[in-house]
Amino acid sequence: MKPNPRQSQIAQLIVVLACAVAIKLYYSTASVNDLLWILAPTTSLVELITGVGFAFESNAGYMSSDHSFLIAASCSGVNFLITAFLMLSLGRLWKYRSQIISWIFIPLSMLAAYLTTILANTFRISTALQIRRLDPELIWLNPDQLHRFEGIVIYFGFLLLLFVISEKIGSQDAASPKVTAGLLKRSLLPLLIYYAMALGVPLANGLYRSGSATSDFWEHSLFVLLIPPLLLLVLASLSFVNDRRSLLRVRKWH
Fold first, then answer.
1. Per-residue H/E/C for 140-185
2. Percent helix / strand / coil, the chain, rounded to 5
3. Which residue of 59, 109, 148, 164 is surrounded by the most CB atoms within 10 Å?
4. How far is CA 143 from CA 134, 140, 146, in A?
5. Cα Rg of the chain (Å, integer)
6. Which own/partner contact pairs does 26-34 have at CB distance under 8 Å and 24+ positions apart?
7. Max Cα separation, the chain?
8. DSSP 110-147
9. Burial level of 27, CB count in 10 A (0-12/13-18/19+)?
């Protein structure tokens, strides 16, 4: 009997969503000691890049040598890991929705999401350490707003980078303008998944726990709604320039 692509992908979709929910539930109750699998490699890279030493303090996190910066559980980036995993997995299921897909894409997507999370966290923490050395008068955002802005730009930027790389790897002709145009259309997928994780989940949690969303959440929502589309605009501009250069090269050779 010939395998049914639809039944296979429904089963794979259920597994992908179950993995995402399981990680989210685990993270909701995890202590910093439970998150060493992601905090330890992140801290090692931060130390390598910045030269700042960190020491682990049980149930607190990694404290800098001058006791001015703590890499805590909230710095683990597990929510980003879930977002990246969903983007890669759901994107593949949608792209090959009429075909039988090997189950290997699920652990490979998780591995790619994990490695990207470590890199994104390293970049974010290293950037935060550098920003702390700037003159506060040169920064027009307050510390909370700056932390939020930095996190959104870096996390969504890395999400876009991961998406572009995964799309280029899966494309037979990555330099084709048609492929680039399709890439930009499909880039709505990481945007929608990011919105769901950064807005939908916190909103649902806030409504469930208190019955209403806080003013801080609405400020966070404004940052989340505005910044990612700007980054997509940058991607579109770079893609347009790349297409123009490719077209000029083709005309030159003809």
1. CCCHHHHHHHHHHHHHHHHHHHHHHHHHHHHCCCCCCHHHHHHHHH
2. 75, 5, 20
3. 109
4. 12, 10, 5
5. 20
6. 27/76, 27/78, 27/79, 30/73, 30/78, 31/59, 31/73, 32/59, 32/60, 32/61, 32/72, 32/73, 33/58, 33/59
7. 70
8. HHHHHHHHHHHHHHHHHHHHHHTTS-GGG--S-HHHHH
9. middle
In whole angstroms, give the CA distance from residue 172 to residue 132: 44
The tokens for 120 are 């994104």
- Lookup: tokens for 207: 């409504």
User: What is the Cα–Cα distance from 93 to 86, expressed in whole angstroms?
Assistant: 10
- Strands, sheet with 54-57, edge to edge from the N-terminal-most edge strand: 54-57, 61-64, 70-71
Of the CA atoms within 13 Å of residue 210, those in its CB half-sphere come to: 8
Give tens-digit pLDDT for 158-186: 999 999 898 888 665 544 545 555 566 67
Q: What is the pLDDT of residue 174?
A: 47
Q: What is the pLDDT of residues 206-221, one digit of tens each?
A: 655 555 556 677 777 8
User: What span, in angstroms and rounded, lies between the C-alpha atoms of 80 and 116?
Assistant: 9
Q: How many residues does the chain have?
A: 254
One-letter amino acid for residue 220 of the chain: H
Distance, in Å, from the CA atom of 228 to the CA atom of 234, rounded to the nearest integer, reads: 10
Cα separation, 132 vs 146, in Å, equals 11
Residue given tokens 């930095």 in the structure block: 150
Q: Which residues of the chain have pLDDT under 50?
A: 174-175, 177
Which one-letter amino acid corresponds to residue 48?
A: L
